[in-house]
């Protein structure tokens, strides 16, 4: 089996300590959380940091917390915890759907949401999920904390706005009423990277029309939501022909690469097909959620 | 650097290079060879051990990261001479052939049953979906785990052989905390 | 759901869970494995042991310009660095392959496949060895590679094997079987002829344990002890003697527990030779264990057959003939492991389960810039390729004739009364009774109900497929007059010894890699002599402790070693008769046998158990003429023929029309392997092979890009099914004993791997029938299935 090149190791005791260590050891240092992206790269010697800063003791970052109209997820929350959380499933079933198909159950025991987002693999499911849910990334550095939209946070494949001496510490997801969300992925086998995947989030107004929608895609060369679907969906009552049109636009908006998982036209087709499916399910879940919502002055999405 | 952890209930302390993988620490330093390795990309799962009761792939955990934690390897499944029901189940239901993936499978099974004592067959398949077996075709592994679920106290056919090596070997350089 | 019948064991001796002989019993080897006390090659630690690592070529075809090992040698943990030049001085730079070719141990002139061995580092520990690899500077002069086998024989194709004198192209061999003239005549006059190109892509056995060795050369004694992942320890010992010059009696090969073989651990890899050289050069034991990328990129792949299949029939579905020409991609060296006279293995069993008028095949083997190999992954020596061809062609014919694929098969099966059956390419099938097996599988599957369901689903646009495979395969190599590996006839030895207190040891030349030989071989002995299997020790794997034989692959353990063991057990039983007679002061012909004892005819209370007879043999009773004082026997068994297991498989799939994803919903497998020794173990072998079939049919492939870079070098790319991709298997059985095998057993280890891929592919093609799909090649990944639905069925290579 492959073995990493030599490096030095230090374990951080707190967020501030981790930031200080990143500052001290500079550009040749990396934090390691779950380690299931970084360590495989180090074993293949594709990554060779000189200092590894272990942040697994940062229990202060391991939480899921409903705070008013926001779900706050600490960056060190493991995939397994997200998958098993009833609150998460109730509020954002797109996360549960996605977690079920992220890697495998044993890798999920170690991998974290922070690690996944910061790795920013083009096939990373949680990146898409956070775009669709319009999450806000909380990044802390020596200068303090800054809030970044997903578009600001996620710059491109393997690239985020987190500076070398900063740490992603939290992900904040706005809670919307009368909402539903869903994720579906095609993979050749459990644990494989996606051939393609799609996620959607839909909110309904009191009259049953779509008041908010977001569609995102994974592994097909699109780093943002498919904003092209907004004019098609907003203000409309959910219906199959909307999903068909949204799917068509998603297929056109993405830019997949041909590889062993499939040719370009197949991946475009999946973008289309999966968009339709997740919109269908998201709308259905939104309708169920709307039926359970009491009519009060709760802010709508 | 020096690391300390609990392995199968016994505290161990050793000097290691930071880059030593947990699987190599277990196999080469502690001479517990029941944990195996079989790939380069964290796919096969023959290296699975329990860390604080949860299955992890020990090829993708540094020994340094396991410092301060409790590790259970296959050698720690039996309670002295008494086999764990999972071990018995694998023998009863032919859940192993070459035996190479078996330690990891049994540990995942143990963790699953501790969490969910009566899993459905699909839940069992999902739980072991991060581990590959090339011999059995998985159905007998599912049956083995179901046997263990149905016999939480094992059965009267427990093998009375003593299990003397659940704890790591002592070496001359043993350093205590 | 499994239909299993256990043969009741002798009610007078033993209970249902602990048969004395054949029957379901737990495995004797399990206690050590469930405790994590299996003893695999990488578990071995010897005093002073060093670690080896191989530097491998990053390109597929290149001249070796220079190697500079200075920096590596300067590494404090490095003890030695060996290059091709060093090996040349020892006459070891090249080693013979199992196919009468030579293979480079380390590159001297040219790199011929990506991943080829270039240098060997020996260091204090595996981490230092790995670090040192990076310190070796190598310069390559890249050459254009031959990657597409179809282009290997182009006039302007680069010549790969310029190491072979006079070699001007990439041709290895041409081979044919059957009667061309008769076959052509049949095809020329047939009502219906269907042709189809079928590709069996390159796949890999990928056992969970990779290959490795610990070599321990004792310079004082001149003795080599080699712990090795090998399925054939004796063959390896003899070959190492021939290659290294170390005399054979000074070589001991020990195969400890092996974590899966599947044909991957038959050949001698450069890594083993390098470990031996490392040990000789350093004077210390040297361990070399490959990592997974090395396993996938450089060890024996399987298949890679491009087959043009043709089938001829009458318009009412009588199959007349089969014809095929095959292009076989052997990689850079011809290292297939198969009997010498069979460069295409047993491919000519492609006539399958059908009574044909004529058949003919040609196989052309070529070199390409890829890893060597070809015969592996439970192929039974190319039988997987043959069965895939015939079972796909029969299905394509069924579609053409608009006939149910089961009906077409039933109409053409070889009939029971025709056995032993001489097929049209020179095989004599030993026994078969196909129809009951087929009907049992249909009953278990609820075949008619499935077809009704399919019809309803099709009306709703849902894609459900039902795939049939009825395979006849051939195993148990083989008669020594026909079958040898590098001149070693494929016979197997067995020795049985009963100790004075009635316990026994049987020493075999077969080599378990998980098949449960420590149990099944004890059961074979128990069945013959009535000593419980727990009291019979099975010794295997150590050339110092076991008789000579060619090892375990091609499902030959039960047909050959199993026969040898049954015969020595019977010899012991017969000898016991004579000794018992002496002890009872009666005549041997006055004694009768019931399992475990000889007793006086007409007076059952007077007799001797095997334990008593064993004590008597070693005791003081006067022995008859010609009987010596032990209860031992030995034999080398030369099988009179191969055996021909068969089976009926039915696969049910559902295909997602929107994504092309294939789900295997059910798989019904009815196998006939003749006499069944342990149904639990047989079922396990079947389950494993069925999983192989799903893997190959849906996801497994080793691909290359145009530069010859291997794209299947890790388990991220080489996908093997998990528990989520396979159903709960449904197995059944029939029993048609082999007439020439002492206990009528045929062997079963590879049957499911052979028979299942066509069942799955037939099911997928059946599901896609509404799209007019007649054929698609493996692997049926979601993308390729979707493309087939669009009318694009491109081959994978």
Written description of the protein model:
The complex is a heterotrimer of chains A (301), B (177) and C (797). Chain A folds into 3 domains: 8-54, Uridine Diphospho-n-acetylenolpyruvylglucosamine Reductase, domain 2 (2-Layer Sandwich), CATH 3.30.43; 59-174, Uridine Diphospho-n-acetylenolpyruvylglucosamine Reductase, domain 3; 179-186 and 194-296, Enolase-like, domain 1 (2-Layer Sandwich). Helix content of chain A is 36%, strand content 24%. Chain A is built from 12 helices and 13 strands. The radius of gyration of chain A is 19 Å and the shape is globular. Chain B is α+β, with helices and mostly antiparallel strands and 177 residues long. Chain B has 5 helices and 5 strands. Chain B has a 5-stranded mixed β-sheet with strand order 2-1-5-3-4, covered by helices on one side. Chain C has 797 residues and is an alpha+beta fold. Chain C is built from 18 helices and 33 strands. The two termini of chain C are 38 Å apart. Classes of the chains: A alpha+beta (301), B alpha+beta (177), C alpha+beta (797). At the A-C interface, helix 12 of A face helix 4 and helix 18 of C.
Using CB atoms under 8 Å apart, which protein chain pair has the greatest interface? Answer: B-C, 63 and 57 residues
CATH topological fold name of the largest domain in chain B: Ubiquitin-like (UB roll)
The assembly state of the depicted protein chains is: heterotrimer
What is the total domain count of chain B? Answer: 2
Helix content of chain B: 25-40%
Task: Let me know the number of strands of chain B.
Answer: 5
Report the CATH architecture of the largest domain in chain B.
Roll
The 3D shape of chain B can be described as globular
What is the rounded Rg of chain C? 27 Å
For the sheet with most strands of chain C, the description reads: 7 strands, mixed
Write the layout of secondary structure elements.
The complex is a heterotrimer of chains A (301), B (177) and C (797).
Chain A: E1 8-11, H1 15-25, E2 29-32, H2 38-43, E3 51-54, E4 64-67, E5 70-74, H3 79-84, H4 86-91, H5 93-100, H6 105-108, H7 113-119, H8 125-132, E6 136-141, E7 144-149, H9 150-153, E8 154-156, E9 159-160, E10 167-174, E11 179-186, E12 196-204, E13 210-218, H10 230-233, H11 240-253, H12 264-292
Parallel strand pairs in A: 1-3, 2-3
Antiparallel strand pairs in A: 4-5, 5-10, 6-7, 6-10, 8-9, 11-12, 12-13
Chain B: E1 2-7, E2 10-15, H1 22-29, E3 48-51, E4 54-57, E5 70-72, H2 85-92, H3 102-115, H4 121-127, H5 139-150
Parallel strand pairs in B: 1-5
Antiparallel strand pairs in B: 1-2, 3-4, 3-5
Chain C: H1 30-34, E1 50-56, E2 62-68, H2 70-74, E3 78-83, H3 84-90, E4 94-96, E5 102-104, E6 110-111, E7 117-123, H4 126-133, E8 137-142, E9 171-178, H5 180-189, E10 192-203, E11 212-218, E12 223-228, H6 233-244, E13 251-254, H7 270-282, E14 286-289, H8 292-298, E15 301-313, E16 319-329, E17 358-366, E18 373-374, H9 383-401, H10 405-412, E19 421-422, E20 428-429, H11 434-445, H12 447-459, E21 463-472, E22 484-485, E23 488-489, E24 492-498, E25 504-508, H13 517-529, E26 536-539, H14 557-584, E27 591-594, E28 597-600, E29 603-609, H15 610-617, E30 631-637, E31 646-655, E32 662-672, H16 679-698, E33 730-733, H17 751-767, H18 782-789
Parallel strand pairs in C: 1-14, 12-13, 15-18, 16-17, 25-26, 32-33
Antiparallel strand pairs in C: 1-7, 2-6, 2-8, 3-7, 4-5, 9-17, 10-15, 11-12, 11-14, 15-16, 19-20, 21-31, 22-23, 24-25, 24-30, 27-28, 28-29, 31-32
